[in-house]
Amino acid sequence: MTVTDVAKALGGRPVRVPAAAASAASAAISRLPVVPSMLEWLHVARTSVVMDTTKAKRDLGWRPTHSSAETLAALASAV
What we know:
Blueprint: H1 3-9, H2 19-30, H3 38-45, H4 54-60, H5 68-78
Organism: Mycobacterium kansasii
Protein name: UDP-glucose 4-epimerase, GalE4 domain protein
């Protein structure tokens, strides 16, 4: 799942921004007296979070009940 997938699911339009510009903007915004809560989403969107569920599957018999796409669709409908 990519940032583009998330942006489209949430009704946004992905825009490419150089990493240095995104970092500078993030740093500037974080110095404001009141930081917009959406800033946290900027930090999340700038990195990939990949979790390995192998041990949960192997040791606990866990199986996901929803795919990434299904979870994203549920998130998008709740926002």
